[in-house]
Queue: 4 jobs
Job 1
Amino acid sequence: MEKRISTPLTEEKVKDLKAGDSVLISGIIYTARDAAHKRLVDLMDKGEELPIDLRDAIIYYVGPSPAKPGMALGSAGPTTSYRMDPYAPKLLDRGLKGMIGKGLRGEDVVDSIIKNNAVYFAAIGGAAALIGKAVEEAELVAYEDLGAEAIRKLTVKDLPVVVVIDSKGNNLYEIGQKEYLNSLKK
């Protein structure tokens, strides 16, 4: 089922999302990869202020390519999510509600998604140019020295994603595998 949501990603919106749902996201999201995640968690550990407000926010795990003329951002394909797993639970505890990436998540992250009523989306790998076209504005907000891995504030319209892990812990990767294996038995 295709759903449209706009940010901020509140608890009520999260509760309506189920593993397998196709979702079009519009509004403000942030980009960050592992180096930026480490810096955010280091600031939290020191009790210092973060450069972005994580409450009801979505972080997209991406290191976009430079923008072409007339574009806000270049290609923006998802990066492998497990590299953010050491940091994700602390960010979820701080109010982060959504993460966009690709691939499996560790048990600690899934437990934290359930505990914090959050959601993990997958963006489609190989569709980086298409995803980049959903970005209307891009603003560098922190860690410019990280280049493509700096934190950016993106304004997106109809960014296509799929719910992989919903707030109840239902995991599309596991569900899909079971359904496929059951189909072989028939």
Note: The chain has six helices and seven strands.
Job 2
Amino acid sequence: MKVILPGDSHAGPFRTEDHTSVLDAQLRQYALEIGTLYRRSEQQRSELEAATLAVVNAFIIALGAHDPYTRDHTSRVQHLALATARLLDFDDGRLEDVRLGSVLHDIGKISVSDSILRKPARLSEQEYEDIRRHPSVGWLMIESFPALQGARNYVLYHHERWDGSGYPHGLKGDAIPIEGRLLAVVDAYDAMTSDRSYRPGRPPAEAVQELLRVSGTQLDPQVVQAFIAALRRETPPG
């Protein structure tokens, strides 16, 4: 059998076996090159993940030193946010974003002075304005890290309110990304049930009643219901 190579009308006889051998050699070479590229890509991804983890840990350590309450609050919020997200049918990839976003959601408070964060009394209007800037500051802190992209909506939108009265952008209803709506509910519950220097925490049952009261005004009703169901699962009876 004569095989004519494409584009070479003057080529002489060429055996099928020879052609197959050349193709096999090319395929083996391609496989080696792809394997090398894959290993290099995996190494780069591993190095990027390690660098990102180091950045996250640095942020957490800095925030914990700056404000011990926020450090402990973050841990509790992460636990309850994950439980709620599972009931909202978040897939594994989105659950990873919940883990990261809940840890970093208050990172912008690093820019707020210790005297405000640890003030043993209610804040003045000016001090409250300083606090209100922390979602935008936090977003600016992480927006240049591609590996932290999944955390951005948690950081920026967790103080938006269902009725549009929140901050920093005054978004309303479904215009608020689900990440912000989720964290707003969990954040509100933990804030109510935590002891602060200027007031004791509310009992859990009372905090749940308050969530129901503001459901549909400050908070997404669907997320409130999912959170309460998650809380019941997390809290043993009695």
Note: The longest helix spans residues 16-66.
Job 3
Amino acid sequence: MVARYTQFLLALCIFVSTAVCARGLPELTDLIEQNSPAVVKINTVERSQASRNAIPPQYQQDIPDIFRHLLEPPQGQRRPVASMGSGFIVSEDGYVVTNNHVVEGADEVTVTLTDRREYEAKVIGTDSRSDLALLKVEARGLPTVRWGDSEKIKVGEWVVAIGSPFGLDYSASAGIVSAMGRSIPNESRENYVPFIQTDVAINPGNSGGPLFNMNGEVVGINSQIYTRSGGSIGLSFAIPASLAQDVVAQLKEKGRVDRGWLGVGIQDVDRKLATAMGLGKPAGALVGQIEAGSPAADAGILVGDIITRFGDHKIVTHGDLPHVVGQIAPGTEVPVVLMREGKERKLKVRVGSLPGEDGGQQQTSGPASTDVGGRLGLVVDDIPDNLKQRLGVESGVLVKQVVPGKAGANAGLRGGDIIAQLGFDAVDTLQDYTKIVKKLPKGELLPIRFFRGGQPTFRTIQIDED
């Protein structure tokens, strides 16, 4: 009798354990089989920056510009540099989404499907602030993915990534959502993406690939990993689909992204500040600086105010504010709740337009026309007065377009940069720029001074062909 009872308990334990495991570990084969055809491998070739990439990117920024040419091989010995990433098809007529850093600076972009079809891709537009890019291939009837609602994702939810880590085509990995709304500033210290953190195994080559929920919908675009070894250690970050859809729609429509702008410098609120400011607990974004003539100044926001709500969104940490403001269409009037001298205040602010880092230009891959951008491959214009005030510059010319493969691109210039000096001559106006460029010597390294995000930078530029 005891033996039978023991066997019964053993069988019951096995049944319960099996049921728990079945409920805890989802079946992923159908999801992966159905969605893999719409995931693509992206290969790029970069000729103009080949010599720079001979040095690991993490060390390039530490090399003074005056010495960079000594580390570059002669012109005739430069070799194309190949790179790779992942992406996914969002329309049957060939629109493909990937990361900006996958295609940035590329002279050739190739998209490969699971059935080994290959297409040359055109870069419709890129957005460095969200690290997103939209490509287009000439094809019809392509397999596509479905967008999901990233606002409904919960911590602990299962997610699946498909991509090409280390060039291993169409690999799948799974994990759970570890956290939501992670603030990770980019190289320019801007913070416009509330990243989804997961423990999915993401490695180099996965960048730009989709992150699926259990309904087979794309809820994120894999963008970054935190690592000390170069490989996955269980900390990966994806761009939320809700933000990506808006960026993709703008890139498709106009080749650029317009973001909301408030014009404040902010910091977090700690426990002591919360007590001093009359808050029950640390929360909100403390305004430490206000730009003259900005939407914040016009709305009556003051230094020392703590913004606790912007529109329909609570501002829990200071990193929440740029996430929210950046996604609001310029010109929109938004209610704001803030704390001032221990009392709650309400006001309205008309959101401005963030100066575009990429200058609003539409970028294209492939050989550049020699007629565009002149000797430097730069399309420039005078700086609008309102932009001068925002960036704190008084003179110069605004870079609106950078032609791949020419002198400006080789010097690392981007749309939105403001050129203040060429060679040893100051550039105050568009007329100055035109005169100076005409007399620049060919084949000599010359200094160039420009502003990016309000910060002055010196580099070198060389004209190799007229």
Note: The chain has four domains: 39-136, 146-254, 260-353, 378-461.
Job 4
Amino acid sequence: MDRHIKAPLNDDEVKMLKAGDYVYISGTIYTARDAAHKRMYEALQNGQEVPMPLKNNIVYYMGPSPAREGRPIGSAGPTTSSRMDKYAPLLMDQGLKGMIGKGKRSAEVREAIVRNGAVYFAAVGGAGALLSKAVKKAEVIAYDDLGTEAIRKLEVENLPAIVVIDSEGSYLYEDVAKKYRKI
């Protein structure tokens, strides 16, 4: 099913999403990759604030290429999500509602998604130039010393993604594999 959703997310909207749904995300989302996740994780472990609002927000595992003239961002493709698996459960426990990346997630992340009523989306890897067209505005808000891995606040319009793990724990990659094993 195709769904148009607005970020930040709300609980009712997240509950409606099912593994396999195509979504078009509009609104405010944030980017963060490995180094930024490590810093946020360490800050939370030390009782400190993180530089982006977590409650009901979406983080996109993406490090953009430099913006071309007249564009807010360069290529905006997803990175491998499993590299953030160590950090994701704590961020979800603090209110993070959605993650966008590519690839599989650990059992611990899947459990945290269900526990927190969150959702994991996949964006198409290798389509960064196309995905960048959904980004209308981008600004670095933290960790600018990390370059492309700095945390950015993005305004997006109809960013395409697929629900891979829904709030009930349905996992598209496993569910589809089971379906085709029966055939």
Note: The chain has one domain: 2-182.
